[in-house]
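Escalation from tier 1.

The customer reports that the assembly of two entities below gives different structure tokens on two consecutive runs. Tier 1 could not reproduce it. I'm attaching the input and our single run for tier 2 to review.
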Amino acid sequence: QKEVEQNSGPLSVPEGAIASLNCTYSDRGSQSFFWYRQYSGKSPELIMSIYSNGDKEDGRFTAQLNKASQYVSLLIRDSQPSDSATYLCAVKRGSNFGNEKLTFGTGTRLTIIP
Amino acid sequence: KAGVTQTPRYLIKTRGQQVTLSCSPISGHRSVSWYQQTPGQGLQFLFEYFSETQRNKGNFPGRFSGRQFSNSRSEMNVSTLELGDSALYLCASSLGFGTNEQFFGPGTRLTVL
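Tier 1 run:
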């Protein structure tokens, strides 16, 4: 079992619709969860972080975390063509001092169709 | 505030050579982590430095090494290059403690011929 699993896609969503990206993780000790966006040929860009169960909203983005189900998701509302990218889920075991290793999923390629 | 910088941006080397990559973190950040990204394996953690000490290490051979200087700048070195080392090498900068976030530099694209 992979430590962090994502559907590789591609996921195609019409412009203006909601894009839903999912991620599961295997390590129950995981405490910090991140979503990165990576455009082709570019480096990953942090778009959301979440540490507690529930929802966290930032503009058109909402991250959802369910530690009991070991599941984290990202919703993108009012999808725009500029949202077309690969979305990487990343998990960090601890939030305490001394553990900065991020474990990444393989990413979901999202395409917004105009 | 300036972001993470990496030099060089592109490198072409031949098998058997060695290479040194450099990373300057965001001002005030004390932790630098290095990752390798390839199409087949995705993003893989190499190692992390904090206050000039290696704090974490991934599952890479000893040919991969790094160091951090007192100004938090970091270098990674790959010796005896192999074709499979061709990848995008990314460094990420963070405060180094707490529920902090990592911010990536633009990466160094290494091609081994």
